[in-house]
């Protein structure tokens, strides 16, 4: 079994809880140990000021996550992992490399109000996208939102690049993990995630989650709880995806559902990759059958919508499956007005 490099394991005794965690930040496996409250910035590209790139309803998630009217998304700016072909590169690079005009800085109270606003829009859940580097603020916001009447489930939508310390903090507040297992192969991780050690980090992360969420359940409204594991086939890496499927069957199958995606859309036109062939696709379906992986979702080859979100727009996604939160829009307009004064 792959284990973490012991030199990089940060003990719980060193780890500070609450907002103090920002003062010596070890919220993700980068363990930057910077003081983000002083304006210092680690690999995630963000200080302790929460920045949100977009909030609204999204109907493009897996069926139980989308529900009837859409998942209530909150996209955070910055990211601890900087994948070479990130579709959200406008916002994931953070203050140091992204488009700093995209996204607004919000207080914890405003973040709580954003959750309440999504509930008023009829959201199925609150879907927190790449929130790892803001875990302490998110926890405070969830607590305040609960006090203000938030009843929706919390979805933790993550790259899988998490520290056990950070997960320990956020786990009591999470109902469903929508979590990537991008690859278990170091070379593939280096090429597509720009970080070979992702392949080592992800196994203990999944072990931690399975120990706490040992089965998928659904409530009377059809809301899913537990683990929904996403895996995207990267171009020309079929053997790595087959390795992942074997791992899933052996380790996760009885505890999690699978969402297998096969449509890779590089965000920049200067890079092209061959598309997956029907023969390759069929070989994955055959392997899933052989491994008796039955619970979950598989993207159809024909489902491809080659859409790259544009977070400069009020609705970054095709309007047929997304709707901006009026509360978020009002905050954005207020921020723009303050900038021009
Ligand atoms: S959250 Fe950011 S500052 Fe903190 S350890 Fe991760 S990358 Fe570094």
UniProtKB/TrEMBL annotation:
It comes from the Bacteria. Transmembrane segments: none annotated. [4Fe-4S] cluster binds at residues 79, 83, 86. Residues 73-201 form the Radical SAM core domain. PROSITE patterns: RADICAL_ACTIVATING. GO terms for molecular function: 4 iron, 4 sulfur cluster binding; lyase activity; metal ion binding; oxidoreductase activity. Keywords: 4Fe-4S, Iron, Iron-sulfur, Lyase, Metal-binding, Oxidoreductase, Pyruvate, S-adenosyl-L-methionine. Binds 1 [4Fe-4S] cluster. The cluster is coordinated with 3 cysteines and an exchangeable S-adenosyl-L-methionine. Its cofactor is [4Fe-4S] cluster. SUPFAM superfamilies: Radical SAM enzymes. Pfam families: Radical_SAM (PF04055). Gene3D superfamilies: Aldolase class I. Coiled coil: none annotated. Belongs to the organic radical-activating enzymes family. This is Pyruvate formate lyase activating protein-like uncharacterized Fe-S protein. It comes from Sphaerochaeta pleomorpha (strain ATCC BAA-1885 / DSM 22778 / Grapes).
